[in-house]
């Protein structure tokens, strides 16, 4: 510390000496006659020590580390822990201000010059001072004349701007005539594709362009540097935008600077010549008048862009006369204004026609029409309160009925239940159809609803799905188009208001349901080692389900599994194992929350957030209630338990808070919409464009049609599009299969080629290698069945239904045999982790990571 102080002191002394020398020079320069050295000492010595003190304190404060300052202050008896930085510096400066001061006056006296040296220095400093003053005076005069010139120009801009433009317009007309008579036209390509040679397509012609803007897009045949980003230069084929912009810029500078030089008052010109010793040049005017000229350049170029080429072609042949060219310009403006009004009128007419077409195509298709003679019965309440059971009991007693389910598994469950209870019931989903003799009841997925069929009772489950952007329209159609004496609609509390808006309040009964079995949130954070019989452990991905099930199995638990991509037949077997007690714990995704009634003692949320296809987000209140409500089963568990692994207070609030009412329902294209669309257009590109432009009615939200658009991109412009009707093509695009699986997308595309070429459908690729292969095979057969049923080939479909059942059995077997052996690996180094290891990285990687953090902090 003391060594540093000494080094800093030496530097402060040198800087102080330099400042004293500067002060002497200033003192001498300010006196006409040479003052005595003693006069300097008398007048300035009071400032000597202040100069030293300022220099010393600044240097020592800025060049000593904070830790050294603390050490120094501790040695002086100060307590410095937790002291603010500013206060610490103040304390330090107070202590070091008198640390070995430099005696400036003594140094000045020791180095006093003799009389001759002093006088010589005075003469030089005085001469320098007088020269500086003269230069400042000259600079002031120059600044003054510059201001006068700029003031003159600024006063003339408003009066002369149009005249300047007319002159520039005439010059540019000659330029464009020359280019259109001599320059080649090039084929348009990607401007950055520099490896491709530009292909000539004849010569430029004024007949090809309406305005100058049209020419600006043409290639000149040269290459230029567009811009620079960091160290990378971006080169591209040059268009006329750039040389014409440069040409207008140069002409603007010349026209304005020429005007100034020719019209500037004589007294300003004389003043300029006296001060600068030369005549005022256009180059000097351009240099000074850049702000004005830059503004005019931009204005003139924008005006030139709007000029009609035919007007400029005619203008070039007329010698420049300001009055004549002004008359021609006004005529051109009038003609341009008239054409613009005509264009705007045509545009308005087109917009009105487009709006009329949009209204005709979509019209009132999505405005709910309340139907007379139907009794609507709303079953509103929480999960696991008997809503669906009551509605189905009424449907079974009716002469005919249909149950519309959100999941194929639920449709299968009702199909089995009704047939086992002596009520003949058929089944229809996108992938299978089972006709039961004499059946007047049917269980379907909601997408299979057909509005022309009549029933005594219709039951629509999980009505809150109305708000789902991609599937919600199926619920809307079922609710508003059902032909029945009674329509029973089952949903959660947050859909009540929306349903009443759709069906009206005059012909509706509302049954409210409350849980008989209470829900209790456990106060202790859940760990996987706490798993017990009757637990349903919920996570939000297939991988997480399998990993968790593997860990539980390796810890001795018998486990069932449920996840969205699992075959429904397999899911049913997994559920039955849990229901019959063969397995004690079930691990599931949020698929467990929709209509699956299981003897669950406790719902465990292993995660509080989920990936929704776009981002990872916290679960919503409705999701927590829907899933958590599955806990408890009357006669088995008289209280339902809910556990969380973290943030218990926050998650409990989501479970208990009131949900905001749903305000919108989803809409999607219908066959009626396509029928009206084909009166005007015949391609799906246009349909998707119109769908985007259509402003759906208040309270509705359009389906995104993202997957349909992506599939359409594979067949656009092919024989598939050419040979299929619009309705048929959209029907194939809309098939409900996993379009993110490349293998399935390719199967769909191959099948479409086979359909339009009247060939046999390619058989789905089947592999029994492992669980993942079996699941993909199941989906492939499912897609094949979707196509067969759509083509009306039911007989052939029966074979593939048996094949699919065999694959589902294989998936069930793989879940029994493979999951336990799933190895967990460190995500950093790939090392195999113990089955019950609770972290994603191994101990070694964790230790290395912690050491790196500690080094960064140090």
From TrEMBL:
<keyword id="KW-0067">ATP-binding</keyword>
<keyword id="KW-0347">Helicase</keyword>
<dbReference type="InterPro" id="IPR055206">
    <property type="entry name" value="DEXQc_SUV3"/>
</dbReference>
<keyword id="KW-0175">Coiled coil</keyword>
<feature type="coiled-coil region">
    <location>
        <begin position="329"/>
        <end position="356"/>
    </location>
</feature>
<protein>
    <submittedName>
        <fullName>Helicase-related protein</fullName>
    </submittedName>
</protein>
<keyword id="KW-0547">Nucleotide-binding</keyword>
<dbReference type="Pfam" id="PF00271">
    <property type="entry name" value="Helicase_C"/>
</dbReference>
<dbReference type="InterPro" id="IPR027417">
    <property type="entry name" value="P-loop_NTPase"/>
</dbReference>
<dbReference type="GO" id="GO:0004386">
    <property type="term" value="F:helicase activity"/>
</dbReference>
<feature type="domain" description="Helicase C-terminal">
    <location>
        <begin position="520"/>
        <end position="673"/>
    </location>
</feature>
<dbReference type="InterPro" id="IPR050699">
    <property type="entry name" value="RNA-DNA_Helicase"/>
</dbReference>
<dbReference type="Pfam" id="PF22527">
    <property type="entry name" value="DEXQc_Suv3"/>
</dbReference>
<keyword id="KW-0378">Hydrolase</keyword>
<dbReference type="InterPro" id="IPR001650">
    <property type="entry name" value="Helicase_C-like"/>
</dbReference>
């Amino acid at each position: 510390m003391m060594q540093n102080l000494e080094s800093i002191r030496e530097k402060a002394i040198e800087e102080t000496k330099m400042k004293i020398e500067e002060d002497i020079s200033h003192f001498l320069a300010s006196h006409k006659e040479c003052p005595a050295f003693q006069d300097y000492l008398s007048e300035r010595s009071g400032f000597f020590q202040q100069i030293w003190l300022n220099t010393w304190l600044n240097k020592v404060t800025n060049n000593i580390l904070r830790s050294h300052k603390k050490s120094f202050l501790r040695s002086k008896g100060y307590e410095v822990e937790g002291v603010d930085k500013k206060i610490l510096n103040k304390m330090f400066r107070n202590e070091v201000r008198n640390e070995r001061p430099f005696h400036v006056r003594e140094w000045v006296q020791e180095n006093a010059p003799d009389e001759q040296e002093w006088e010589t220095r005075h003469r030089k400093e005085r001469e320098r001072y007088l020269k500086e003053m003269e230069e400042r005076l000259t600079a002031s005069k120059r600044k003054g004349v510059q201001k006068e010139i700029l003031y003159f120009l600024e006063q003339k801009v408003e009066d002369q701007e149009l005249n300047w433009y007319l002159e520039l317009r005439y010059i540019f007309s000659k330029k464009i005539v020359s280019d259109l008579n001599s320059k080649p036209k090039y084929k348009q390509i990607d401007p950055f594709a520099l490896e491709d040679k530009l292909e000539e397509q004849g010569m430029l012609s004024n007949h090809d362009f309406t305005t100058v803007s049209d020419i600006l897009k043409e290639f000149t045949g040269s290459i230029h540097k567009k811009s620079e980003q960091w160290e990378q230069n971006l080169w591209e084929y040059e268009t006329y935008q750039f040389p014409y912009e440069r040409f207008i810029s140069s002409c603007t500078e010349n026209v304005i600077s020429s005007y100034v030089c020719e019209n500037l008052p004589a007294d300003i010109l004389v003043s300029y010549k006296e001060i600068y010793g030369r005549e005022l040049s256009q180059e000097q005017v351009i240099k000074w008048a850049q702000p004005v000229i830059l503004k005019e350049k931009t204005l003139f170029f924008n005006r030139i862009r709007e000029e009609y080429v035919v007007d400029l072609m005619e203008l070039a042949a007329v010698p420049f006369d300001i009055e004549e060219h002004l008359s021609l310009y006004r005529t051109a403006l009038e003609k341009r204004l008239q054409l613009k009004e005509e264009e705007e009128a045509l545009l308005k007419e087109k917009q009105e026609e487009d709006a009329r077409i949009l209204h005709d195509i979509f019209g009132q298709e999505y405005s709910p029409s309340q139907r007379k003679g139907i009794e609507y019965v709303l079953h509103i309440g929480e999960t696991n309160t008997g809503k669906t059971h009551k509605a189905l009991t009424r449907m079974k007693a009716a002469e005919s009925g249909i149950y519309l389910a959100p999941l194929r598994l639920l449709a299968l469950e009702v199909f089995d239940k009704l047939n086992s209870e002596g009520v003949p019931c058929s089944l229809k989903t996108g992938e299978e159809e089972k006709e039961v003799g004499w059946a007047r009841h049917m269980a379907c997925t909601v997408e299979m609803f057909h509005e022309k069929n009549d029933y005594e009772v219709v039951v629509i489950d999980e009505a809150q799905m109305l708000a789902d952007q991609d599937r919600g329209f199926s619920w809307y159609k079922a609710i508003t188009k059902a032909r029945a004496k009674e329509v029973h609609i089952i949903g959660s509390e947050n859909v009540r208001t929306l349903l009443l808006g759709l069906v009206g309040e005059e012909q509706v009964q509302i049954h409210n349901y409350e849980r008989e079995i209470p829900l209790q949130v456990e106060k202790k954070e859940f760990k996987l080692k706490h798993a017990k019989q009757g637990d349903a452990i919920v996570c939000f991905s297939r991988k997480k389900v399998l990993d968790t099930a593997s860990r539980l199995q390796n810890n001795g638990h018998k486990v069932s599994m449920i996840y969205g991509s699992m075959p429904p037949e397999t899911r049913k077997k997994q559920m039955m194992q849990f229901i019959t007690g063969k397995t004690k714990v079930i691990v599931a995704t949020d698929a467990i929350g929709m209509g699956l009634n299981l003897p669950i003692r406790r719902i465990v949320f292993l995660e509080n957030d989920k990936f929704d296809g776009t981002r990872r987000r916290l679960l919503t209140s409705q999701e927590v209630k829907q899933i958590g409500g599955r806990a408890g089963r009357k006669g088995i568990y008289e209280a339902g338990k809910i556990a969380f692994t973290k943030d218990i207070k926050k998650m409990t609030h989501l479970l208990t808070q009131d949900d905001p009412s749903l305000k919108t329902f989803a809409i999607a294209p219908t066959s009626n919409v396509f029928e009206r669309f084909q009166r005007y257009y015949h391609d799906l590109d246009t349909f998707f464009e119109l769908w985007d432009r259509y402003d759906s009615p208040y309270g509705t939200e359009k389906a995104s049609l993202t997957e349909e658009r992506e599939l359409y991109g594979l067949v656009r412009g092919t024989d598939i599009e050419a040979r299929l009707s619009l309705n048929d093509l959209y029907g194939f695009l809309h098939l409900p299969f996993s379009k993110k699986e490349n293998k399935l997308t390719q199967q769909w595309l191959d099948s479409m080629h086979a359909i339009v070429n009247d060939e046999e459908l390619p058989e789905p690729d089947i592999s029994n290698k492992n669980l993942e292969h079996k699941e993909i095979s199941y989906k492939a057969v499912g897609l094949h069945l979707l196509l067969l049923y759509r083509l009306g080939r039911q007989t052939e479909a029966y074979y593939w239904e048996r094949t699919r059942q065999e694959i589902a059995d294989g998936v069930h077997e793989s879940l029994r045999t493979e999951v336990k052996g799933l190895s967990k690996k460190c995500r950093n180094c790939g090392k195999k982790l113990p089955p019950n290891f609770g972290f994603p990285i191994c101990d070694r990687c964790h230790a290395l990571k912690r050491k790196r953090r500690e080094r960064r902090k140090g």
